[in-house]
Amino acid sequence: MIGIRIAKGGCRGREAYRFPLAQVSKKLGRYFSISSQKSQRPDLKHESFEHTEMKYSNSPVWAWNEWDPLEEVIVGRVEGATVPPLTIEVKANTNEKHWNFFNQNGGSHFPAEHMEKARKEIENMCDILRKEGVVVRRPDPIDFVEKFQTPDFTSSGLYSAMPRDILMVVGDEIIEAPMAWRSRFFEYRAYRSLIKDYFRQGASWTTAPKPQMSDDLYDQDYPMKSVQDRHRLAADGKFVTTEFEPCFDAADFIRAGRDVFAQRSQVTNYMGIEWMRRHLEGKGIRVHTLSFKDPNPMHIDATFNIIGPGLVLSNPDRPCLQIDMFRKAGWKIVHPPTPLVPDEHPLWMSSKWLSMNVLMLDPKRVLVEEEEKTTIAMFESLGIECIRVPLRYANSLGGGFHCWTCDVRRKGTLESYF
Description:
Blueprint: H1 2-7, H2 11-28, H3 30-39, E1 70-75, H4 88-91, H5 99-105, H6 112-131, E2 135-137, E3 148-149, E4 154-155, H7 163-166, E5 167-170, E6 173-176, H8 192-200, E7 204-207, H9 227-235, E8 253-256, E9 259-263, H10 270-280, E10 286-290, E11 304-308, E12 311-314, H11 323-328, E13 332-334, E14 359-362, E15 365-369, H12 373-381, E16 385-389, H13 392-395, E17 405-410
Parallel strand pairs: 1-2, 6-7, 9-10, 12-13, 15-16
Antiparallel strand pairs: 1-17, 3-4, 5-6, 8-9, 11-12, 14-15
């Protein structure tokens, strides 16, 4: 049922499904016939793997979902964070009220006083995770202010603050995402020491095809003069990234055992989702595309955050057009309360909905921003203990607890929740 409902979900769901067919089918050949055939399957079972048991592993890398007991995590770094140039892909993902900030500061470090407060918050979060029994690993420190050049473009870097954007663990495999912002082209370098260490200990390591990020990857005429423009374009299934080559951020995928859910966004295209679908099908994992009423889709975990078996936080401002399939499967849909972030607090690369961008330590414990009192009350009503941690200044770099981390190892097994 899930394939049919995703393909024929709501109005935007249908549009999203048809969009690549009309635009790039001649270039991709069999890709679309394969993709459409797979999506029309009448149920969620994967015959080859239905009865395969994936037992808890001694691999250093092991996670199948977002909520099993957390044993090891990568936490990002504030150090070296650099304001990206206001290129077209950055402009498409940021609020117009911050465009002057990017124009004036692109290629320079973020404000030092603000970053020092953010650094202290992240160090405190690491200490709290350690006290909860979680092993904390960190990327290498890199100063991203240095400019670089490829045959296709020149840019400065961004940061190594958000490991969720670039790394995704599925089972005993760590997948390195290709990214879509030019300023993030070399971001993987900060994580290579860690990944090589996991690989030497027995983990699988896959790097997705690296995009050229030439002008062909971006719609150079993408109009975005106002919020109204963004709503109209998103409703029409149009994005700043084209289907020139696969691109995706790992944060546009969220795991629920045998089912992984993705969204087409400003940084993740259909080719990227298809690459992930083909790559994971050998593990018996099904990748499904969801769509949302979101004028600026980028990263699924502040829109649709799965926090337990059959339990999902669904952003009330960005309703999921395929939500009925979760209801029919017996899932509990929780709409988080309005965030309490003050209007004057700078959020240069995100919305206030980082309040729902939480990290589950296990099904009954969660890291949550200490000032989000109504969100804390929501979790407590669900019987989930809240570990209250300050993260307001770190939020300004574009992420909550989920974004600032990559769960490397969780104690659990591969299961189906549908």
